[in-house]
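assembly run, all chains below
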Amino acid sequence: MHQEFTTVFARGAKNDAYAKYFVGQSYLNMLSLEQVVIGNVTFEPGCRNNWHIHHADKGGGQILLVTGGRGCYQEWGKEARELLPGDVVNIPAGVKHWHGAAPNSWFAHLAIEVPGENTRNEWCEPVAEKEYRLLK
Amino acid sequence: MHQEFTTVFARGAKNDAYAKYFVGQSYLNMLSLEQVVIGNVTFEPGCRNNWHIHHADKGGGQILLVTGGRGCYQEWGKEARELLPGDVVNIPAGVKHWHGAAPNSWFAHLAIEVPGENTRNEWCEPVAEKEYRLLK
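ok done. output:
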């Protein structure tokens, strides 16, 4: 496991603020705090966020732009989708989902917060270890 | 000049739709057409867009996330800013500006369209050749 994994965007500091919603170590580098909020999120191998929902009364949701490594995106009740550099995920508001690294690979994506009205995140349970370990 | 320049995001097709607003060859690969519009724009060495303004009654403007090569961003009346991979530019609505490749380098950035009300682009004159050639 190479500790120096970075993409074109700097990895940033340990993502302590959201650590309670993640399994494993993630890193966060905020790239834009005005106009549209954009962060670069990096996951160590095996790291993923809990199931969560981006709520909004109008608009909202998130767009992921994968910049490095190999990871996964899964919506509740659907099969997990493998993510590789260059992949794009449009996450609608209201959809329960998680994303993170593959068990054996670093992973990084830009997270673009889609503007909306009364946006807020609901954090749910961790991804079941048994289910996560089935990922290739 | 390496013809196969790409970044983590595919280069896409020749940007014919906007060619009249560019000097030189650019390429456009739309990454998201919903939620927030995002394109990957690639410029051949020497290629740049004309001076232009992102107008909006509210919100609007554009964010550039540089993914490869070396380029330039300049606002009217200000010095040109060199752009390298990892750089971020928040372009407010109403500001006349241009961006493009350095004379001797390919260049690529993601262009994130900031949502707004009554957004529209005003395309102006090309960057003066004499001024552009002064760039290093």
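Chain B touches chain A through 26 residues (CB under 8 Å).

The longest strand of chain B covers residues 62-69.

not gonna interpret more than that til we talk
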